Amino acid sequence: MRIFGIIGRPLGHSFSAGYFTRKFEELGLADECRYYNFELSSLTELADLRARYPDLEGFNVTIPYKREIVPWLNELAPEAEEIGAVNCVKVVRDGGASDGRLVGYNTDAHGFEVGLEKLLGGAPEAGLKALVLGTGGASCAVRWVLKHKGIDYQMVSRVSGEGFGGEQRLSYDELTPKIIEHNKLIINTTPLGTFPEVEGKPALPYDAVGKEHFLYDLVYNPTVTAFLTEGVKRGAAILNGETMLHAQAEKNWEIWSRNIGNDLDCTNLK
User: Fold this and answer.
1) Are residues 102 and 113 in the same domain?
2) How far is CA 98 from CA 108, 214, 244, 264, 269, in A?
3) What is the pLDDT of residue 14?
4) Which residue, among 107, 82, 115, has the nearest Cα to 187 in the 3D structure?
5) Segments of 208-262 assigned E as strands
6) Helix 108-120 vs helix 137-149: crossing angle, to nearest 10
7) Is residue 249 part of a domain?
């Protein structure tokens, strides 16, 4: 049996098991592939997990381990190394290694970019400025894409000052209507508003949001979060995280299913 899964906590909201179960059925692989939720209270449980599932071929990584997982891996693909966060791990068994090497990838960046292009709908990126709400693992991928697209951004967190990677961040208390008006792209990378706590939303001066704004929420359940609802009220273009989710999931499967001998685009860690 070929085993795949996702590690993180909590996982009650995760769509991955259902998505890949359907995918295996569509591909005629339902009898040989399984995808499980592996809720880990700590990454110290990863070794036990691999011992219990010796046929584990790959797994996704979600909150709160996207950055924490990096030291536990043997290799990183270049994008994952630049981003500093991993959401996809492939177990590569070659060279006589019985338990396999853990190779980390970041497919969140690909998924986010697909969604961003859909949200902007051909609107010019030149001169566009963004606010990135949250500083977790998903935020790392978002910022990497914005940098590569030449979109200036400002990080926002609960505490101002120097954040991860030395970048400066604003606190929510420091956000003014003028700052909101100046930054037409606002991206929520926090879990605020995720089911079942659907009333949660980032603390912004929403009255400064207008028809020229683009609101992108990485949360996908519910379909229209409280954050996006504020945008709808004011005529902004909105997008939830479903497009990103599907795009990164397809990229994960591409990585897991390709020939293991082709994993040459990685940077050795140890």
Assistant:
1) no
2) 29, 49, 34, 19, 19
3) 81
4) 115
5) 214-217, 237-239
6) 60
7) no
* 269 has a pLDDT exceeding 60: no
- How far is it, in rounded angstroms, from Cα 185 to Cα 182? 9
Q: How confident is the model over 64-118, as pLDDT tens digits?
A: 999 999 999 999 999 999 999 999 999 998 754 457 899 999 999 999 999 999 9
Q: pTM of the entire structure?
A: 0.90
Q: Which domain holds residue 62?
A: 2-106
Catalytic residue among 23, 66, 178, 184: 66
Q: What is the DSSP pairing of strand 168-171 with strand 161-162?
A: antiparallel
pLDDT digits (tens, 9 = 90+) for 231-249: 999 999 999 999 999 999 9
- And the tokens for 208? 């400064």
CATH of the domain at 177: 3.40.50.720
Q: How many domains, the chain? A: 2
Largest CA distance in the chain: 61
Neighbouring CB atoms inside 10 A of 261's CB total 8
Assess whether 66 carries a catalytic annotation: yes
202 and 89 belong to one structural domain: no
